[in-house]
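User: Predict structure, ligand 5-amino-5-deoxy-1-O-phosphono-D-mannitol.
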Amino acid sequence: MCGIVGYLGKKEKKEILLDGLQELEYRGYDSAGIAVIKDRKLNHFKAIGKLKNLREKTRDFSSEGFGISIGHTRWATHGKPTELNAHPHLGQYSYVVHNGIIENYQALKKELQEDGAVFLSQTDTETIVHLFEKYHQTSNDPFDAFQKTIERLEGAYATLLITEAAPDTIFFAKNGSPMLIGFEEEDVYFASSDTPIIGKATEVYYLEDREYGYAKKGEVALFDAQGSKSFQKQTLPTDKAMAQKDGYRFFMEKEIYEQSSVISDTMIGRINDEQIHFDELESDFFDGIDAIKICACGTSYHAALASSYLFERFAKVRCDIEIASEFRYKEPLLDDKTLFITISQSGETADTLEALKMAKRAGLKSLSICNVDNSSIVRESDAAILTRAGIEKGVASTKAFATQAMVLWMLSLYLADKRQMISREQKMIEIDAMRRTPKALIVTEALHGKLHRLSKRYLHGHGFFFIGRDIFYPLALEGALKLKEISYLHAEGYPAGEMKHGPIALADSELFTIALMPKTLHYDKIKSNVEELSARDATILAISPEPFELADDFIQTLQSTHPMLEFFEMMVITQILALEISIRLGNDVDMPRNLAKSVTVE
Ligand code: M6R
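Assistant: Predicted complex:
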């Protein structure tokens, strides 16, 4: 998740780039940079940290008169947030900005280094500019060189390239990461989303995957694998606030819908044919480790709890989970053969950070699973795996949870493989299911419509019980937390088999039970638990691929072959249910009362 802006025209380029990047800062803010070619002269500026640092650096620079320009705000995936790793990346006479992940960058980098290219950064992006100059040096044709470059790229990219070899042209290409082109008379704009160009351009074209081309004074050319194409331009919306939410009513809603694509970002470069890879981990990282302890809070704790089933089931390693605020004061017994994992969306949660410091003082090796590079928890840990969810604005976490669950699933498999605890056949089943996860996360209009209609029956009552077994128990906890956070209704997550040990006393028609009834895991067991509740007149909303005659309401899920696919599909359903109930109650979905996005106090 990074932000890209480009501009070709006569206006002050610096201001257009900086204002545009400001709008995209939510996509990444660990560094930013711009490059401008005017009168054949190339200028560039980079600064780490927030955009205001770049503004400060470029204070005395102006760029009026016809020229071309590109800018970028970065959210680190490869390499730390340093000035050298900030975009634009420089070859000998060209600059590139890029959003996405070039999966084959290591092979390309090796090839280019053998040809004599000198790399300055640790990024995957820098390969693009060296590849371009390599092809340009043989063909002397910048567009031909650009075409040849993008043919070699595997993975996701939205990229802009400028070069002194064609000082009036911006080259562009898109695959898997968003990019659009804005038009206003002779001016041409590029951006990762609408907001930077609203009020500037009047028409827009949203690039499709594998489209590419160039823009120069008076001409914008578009191509795909079939050859030249014409633009089907649209009128650009004028409402900025709406555009930031991509047309959704709330950031939380947008983030729920985004899960299907961000989960691919989480996996990209980490799943090869038959293996899980984490570039972040040295090959001996798990040597000497015989147990795992995970500490986290809130939603991140629920992801941890779900993963404990996977670590023990696949990797056959003991895995204990603790709520960070409890762990800190229980005087825990720690042993240095235990790997200490922290999970945090923000990387700044005070209790989790302090738990990590305690574990380090006790000599434990540490790993963090986090969405924010360079956050306190990441910096404090021996190693970190980024979840790559992109910035999450809704206080109620959704895509952060989905990506944490995916990283943990992959990690359990990675460890199972290292410990030789999993057969090749089982590994292939898991990898195949991982690849099918984006589909399980798609929100259809029919599903959302049904949950919208159904939500009106769940605005009162004396409480909700979300129930599930196995990994669906932590998912039940998470479903209840989502509902509590944004509807202010009382909800609890419970292990389904535990209801009869007390909570069933609450059962009557005003007790709403949300039953997670997957087909692939303990279906008959959970069915009996739900029957017990139904017999006491509890109102049941069953979520299952199997029709369930005792349910008052029923959401039918897909007939999946893998529990994690059912997990992700049911996760989306509980998120939208909470969203729709909250909207009907007139609550502030994105900023629920009493809550903060990052809890940096004890
Ligand atoms: O940033 P973290 O993941 O460490 O935050 C932990 C909790 O504060 C967080 O998950 C909280 O429960 C969210 N509001 C959940 O939606």
